[in-house]
TrEMBL record:
Name assigned to this protein: HEAT repeat domain-containing protein
Gene3D superfamilies: Leucine-rich Repeat Variant (1.25.10.10)
Coiled coil: none
Transmembrane recorded as keyword: yes
Pfam families: HEAT_2
Keyword annotations: Membrane, Transmembrane, Transmembrane helix
Transmembrane parts of this sequence: 12-36
Length: 358
């Protein structure tokens, strides 16, 4: 009984060892095959690059030499050529871009890109979105719309750029409808819109703002402040009147204000319950205010929050027409020790800065 049991154990060990050896050999063969495939792919890429780079440049700089038939391409080679075409297309403008678009037609690029757009390969799908946008393929506009809603940031932003390239008038409202997305930085969105016609951009942003939530309006103000600061002022006015209790929106609005016409609305926030808003008011008065704002800033020197007092003192000293004699007079008139202390502190800081510069 014991010998039989031992024989079974030996056989199990032998079979297990054989299976492990076989699996090891299979993994080794798989590794070698993958290495071979990678080398072949790199070789094909290099061959396609060497063959097609001169052709692409000829299409740009010597179109008279491109009347002959193009070299035949297999599926893999076609993918490499598309990548080369994309890289070159993104570096040229004007007539050079037009000639590359003609080459895309010769290659029957658009039908293939539409197939890639609906395929399963992520890389091919992203390439297709970029290519269809570059050639401004109008028939692909509707097919690209769902990709703007993609939760993957890179897909949605590339699709947004493609829509704007194909039809800016139709695409811009779609892009602005996604302004709430936290994964879309405002500066990135501004980069998409910076080349659009100014009137189209302002009109579309204004229309979007009419139905915007507080968060969306805040991001729209930031966006317009980057693209055209003066055109952000109506949005700021809307924020101050429509959302007077939204602290983050108001601080953005105050920080973005560049028009003195907004001063009456800004001054109304002097007693806002959020100290962050009062700080931004003091800073805005430094940029936009005049000597008539001195009484308001003097009152803000007694604010319960230290930062409000500090910014108010800085703004007070920077008002037009304020000189040392006027500051001395205010110091004598102040009865609040906190107000007097912060004014003296800011005066000393500015004197040290002035001495450091001289």
């Amino acid at each position: 009984m014991s010998d039989t049991h031992s024989d079974v154990i030996v056989q199990l060990v032998w079979y297990s060892s054989a299976v492990l050896l076989l699996m090891t050999l299979m993994l080794l063969l798989l590794t070698l095959f993958m290495h071979y495939e990678r080398r072949q792919r790199e070789k094909s890429r290099q061959q396609a690059t060497e063959q097609w780079t001169p052709i692409l440049f000829s299409w740009i700089y010597s179109p008279e030499q491109t009347t002959g038939p193009l070299p035949q391409l297999n599926a893999e080679g076609f993918g490499f050529v598309v990548q080369l075409w994309l890289q070159l297309e993104q570096t040229v403008r004007g007539s050079a871009s037009t000639r590359l678009a003609e080459l895309a037609q010769r290659l029957d690029l658009i039908p293939v890109m539409k197939q890639w757009l609906h395929g399963y390969s992520t890389d091919k799908k992203l390439t297709a979105i970029m290519a269809l946008g570059i050639v401004q393929e109008k028939s692909a506009f509707a097919e690209l719309l769902p990709h703007v809603l993609d939760k993957r940031t890179i897909f949605s932003l590339v699709a947004a750029r493609a829509l704007l390239s194909i039809d800016a008038k139709l695409g811009l409202p779609v892009i602005l409808s996604q302004i709430y997305r936290d994964d879309w930085s405002v500066s990135r969105v501004a980069g998409l819109l910076v080349r659009l016609p100014h009137d189209l951009m302002v009109r579309s942003v204004t229309e979007c703002a009419e139905k915007a939530t507080a968060k969306e309006l805040r991001r729209l103000i930031k966006l317009m402040h980057i693209l055209s600061p003066i055109d952000s002022q109506p949005l700021i006015q809307q924020a101050l009147t429509q959302y007077p209790d939204e602290m983050e929106l108001l601080t953005t609005a105050f920080a973005s204000a560049v028009s003195p016409d907004l001063l009456p609305l800004l001054r109304q926030q002097v007693e806002h319950p959020q100290w962050e808003v009062r700080v931004q008011l003091a800073k805005a008065l430094a940029r936009l205010g005049d000597s008539s704002d001195a009484p308001l800033l003097l009152n803000m020197l007694s604010d319960p929050n230290w930062w409000v007092r500090y910014r108010a003192a800085q703004s007070l000293i920077s008002l037009p027409g304020v000189d040392e004699a006027q500051l001395q007079l205010w110091q004598q008139q102040l009865t609040d020790p906190f107000a007097l202390a912060i004014l003296l502190q800011v005066k000393e800081e500015q004197q040290r800065q002035h001495q450091g510069r001289t």
